[in-house]
């Protein structure tokens, strides 16, 4: 078989569970409940099935999105939502307007090893990551776990071609 030219070198960058930030956001929810207060107008509070992940861009320039690499070790669904560069988690609460559209959704059906995903949205989101990498060293994501999944059941990374 003929090849399409030399293979571009690739970088795979994992989405890593940020346990400290997830804990901090859960404490915010608990604090509001204990004091009987409501969230700020437009504030995004972390739900029990959500965790905060981060992607550290080990390279910021000359990246071209290639693919998502998401593995679910059992049936279920995950939704990966990016956050905007305006969110500084150590200084401000996460606002709903800082959640990026579209989200990437991946699922695996019972009795199947095949992964499915919302391909067009996941690709559009992935392509935006190449642009966001130019202006960020780190990016945060909310991962929502559905249908019995939890962080231990998911491995996610983004694969980029190096230009």
From TrEMBL:
Belongs to the olfactory marker protein family. Pfam families: Olfactory_mark. This is Olfactory marker protein. The gene is OMP. May act as a modulator of the olfactory signal-transduction cascade. One of its GO terms (cellular component) is cytosol. The lineage of its organism: Eukaryota, Metazoa, Chordata, Craniata, Vertebrata. Interacts with BEX1 and BEX2. PANTHER family: OLFACTORY MARKER PROTEIN. It comes from Chrysochloris asiatica. InterPro entries: Olfactory_marker (IPR009103), Olfactory_marker_sf (IPR036727). Keywords: Acetylation, Cytoplasm, Olfaction, Sensory transduction.
């Amino acid at each position: 078989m003929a090849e399409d030219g030399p293979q571009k070198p690739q970088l795979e960058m994992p989405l890593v569970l940020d346990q400290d930030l997830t804990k901090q956001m859960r404490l915010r929810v608990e604090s509001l409940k204990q004091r009987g207060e409501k969230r700020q107008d437009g504030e995004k509070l972390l739900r029990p099935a959500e965790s905060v992940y981060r992607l550290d861009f080990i390279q910021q320039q000359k990246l071209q999105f290639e693919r998502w690499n998401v593995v679910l070790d059992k049936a279920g669904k995950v939704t990966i939502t990016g956050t905007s560069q305006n969110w500084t988690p150590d200084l401000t609460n996460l606002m709903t307007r800082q959640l990026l559209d579209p989200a990437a959704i991946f699922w695996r059906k019972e009795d199947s090893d095949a992964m499915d995903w919302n391909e067009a949205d996941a690709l559009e989101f992935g392509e935006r990551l190449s642009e966001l990498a130019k202006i960020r060293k780190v990016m945060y994501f909310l991962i929502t776990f559905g249908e019995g999944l939890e962080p231990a059941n998911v491995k996610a990374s983004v694969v980029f071609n190096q230009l």
